Every structure is written in C-alpha cells, then in structure tokens.
Amino acid sequence: MQMIQAVLDGSASAAEVEHFKLHMHDCLPCIEGYKLEKSIKDALQVKMEKKCCPQATVVDIRAKIGLGIVLLGFIVAEVKLYHLLFSC
Amino acid sequence: MEEEIIEIERYSEKEKYAVFDKEFMPHIDSMYNFAFRLTNDEDDANDLVQDTYLKAFRFINSFERGTNAKAWLFRILKNSFINDYRKKSKEPSKVDYQDVETTYNSVEDAEMDATTDLRTETVQDMIGDEVANALNSLPVDFRTVIILCDIEGFTYEEMAKILDIPIGTVRSRLHRARNLLKEKLKNYASSMGYKTDEMAEQD
C-alpha cells in the first residue's frame, strides 16, 4: 500500500511506477485500495475549507518589518520623479 | 532554526524587502491554513504566521532567491510550532508521537490495510467538516504529514526537508497516518449511519 500511495502522491521511483503499471490490473485489492486512497486524498484537497490569512495579519506583518514604509517611500519617490519629468 | 543559519550578507536592504514581498508573501494563505490546521485555533494561527514571517525576514540572508521559498517557510513554521506553540497549545490532551508510532509499528499495523473496511463511496459522500473532524482528531505529527502531502502537495523529498527526517520515514509515517485517518473516517461513518463494508456484509 505504501507503493500505491507513493504513486498517487507522485513521489514513487521509476521502478515503482513501472511495477504499478504492470501489476495493478491483476490485483483487485490494489485497485480498491487505490480508489479509496484517491477518494480520501481528493476529499482532503477539495472538500476541506482552506483558511485564508486575515488581512489584518498581513498588514501587521508588513508594518512590523517596515515594508509599508519602504513601499510608501517608493511611491513618494515615483510621484516626485513623475512631477520632475512631466511638470512644466 | 537559528543555530543552522549561516549569516552571509546576501541582500541589500532594498533587495530584502523585494525578496520578502515577491517570494514569501504569496505563500501567506497556505502558511495560515497550515498554522490553523496545526493549532486548531485562529489566534494561535495568527501568532504563528506572524512569528514565522518575522523570523523569515530576520534570517532572509540564509534564503537563496529562486529556491523553494514555500518549503523554507513551512520548515520555519513547523519548527516554531514545535518549539513555541506546542508547549502552550490550547488542545486539552496531546498524544506523544513516540507512543503512537510504537503502537502503529506493531503487527496490527501490517494487517490494518486488510481490515479497514471504509468504502470509497462513503468517503465521496462525506462533507468537508466530517473530513476535517477526522483529520483534526489525529495526533499532530500524523496530521502534519497528511496536510503537507495531501493539502499542500509537497513531494516526499520536500517533506523530508521540512520535517528534517529521512524520506523513508516520511513514507512510513504517511502510511501510518493514513491508516489512522481511515479508521477515524470509518468510525465516524458508522456513527453517522453511512454504509461501510462491515454494515453491507450484515445486510
């Protein structure tokens, strides 16, 4: 079953994948096992809610490392450059 | 984490912010989701993500631009969780991983594949909350490998680096974690009246 899981996870070796392809169809418990493992993997990927990081946390992090100030600095510099280049 | 850091001045101040913004910030939702699944608490997840990102910035010179930023960040978060949060976790009871591993290393484990009678159709019928409850009921080390592999899609090689364990251990831990998850799902299915093979045989 570990080999079937590795194939399903895309982490099996070339030899394991080859073995899987050759013998899978002769082994009913393997087919059933593969289907069950895949259904659980799909359920975990698709059905479970994916929590997104609250915007307040993102803002906090940026503020704590001073990224906000740096970005503001870039914007101010760009605005000044724009005025310098395009104002009469 | 800190002791492994080699402090080379790789980036200028301006580059540090650029790397942080372009390579680290795009993974913040995955990081939060991982933190939430580990802690089962939104406040703890927030704190854990903040700590991780602040550490990542502090040690940014040890990150090589263009390498796997997501795996690098996940490793920091996992270490922060083990070192700081696990001790003060709000979860009422923790199962020691060694105990669990010993249990599932027994002969029972080898036979478990054959005895688990969970049906594919039953899993397909379950809703997200039911799957989440089963996952949350696993010991954290088992939960971690399933989250990394099945939800975040890391390869075994990446997981080995994140968890700092050999690939063989990743494989066997994942196998045990999945067997345990199947047991939880089966028990849950039975309690909720879903049909399992066991019940089908009785019909």
Low-pLDDT regions of chain B: 106-112
The averaged pLDDT of chain B comes out at 83
Give the topology string of chain A: H per helix, E per strand. HHHHH
* Global Rg of chain A: 27 Å
Count of strand segments of chain A: 0
Shape of chain B: elongated
- Our count of helices of chain B gives 12
Number of strands of chain B: 0
Query: For the terminal residues of chain A, how far apart are their CA atoms?
Result: 75 Å
Shape of chain A: elongated
Q: Most extensive interface, residues per chain?
A: A-B, 36 and 48 residues
| Uncertain residue ranges of chain A | none
Order of helices and strands of chain B: HHHHHHHHHHHH
How many strands, which pairing sense, and closed or not: the largest β-sheet of chain A?
none
Content of β-strand of chain A: under 5%
Residues in helix, % of chain A: over 70%
Question: From the helix content, strand content and strand pairing of chain B, which structural class follows?
Answer: mainly alpha
Percentage beta strand of chain B: under 5%
Short description:
The complex is a heterodimer of chains A (88) and B (203). Chain A is an all-alpha fold.
Features:
heterodimer; A: 88 residues; mainly alpha; 5 helices; elongated; B: 203 residues
Describe this structure in words.
The complex is a heterodimer of chains A (88) and B (203). Chain A has helices spanning 2-8, 14-23, 28-47, 55-65, 67-86. By secondary structure, chain A is an all-alpha fold. The radius of gyration of chain A is 27 Å and the shape is elongated. Mean pLDDT of chain B is 83; it is low at 106-112.
Topology:
The complex is a heterodimer of chains A (88) and B (203).
Chain A: H1 2-8, H2 14-23, H3 28-47, H4 55-65, H5 67-86
Chain B: H1 13-24, H2 28-39, H3 42-58, H4 69-85, H5 97-104, H6 107-115, H7 120-125, H8 128-136, H9 140-151, H10 156-163, H11 167-191, H12 197-202
Helix pairs in contact in B: 2-3, 2-4, 3-4, 4-10, 8-11, 9-11, 10-11
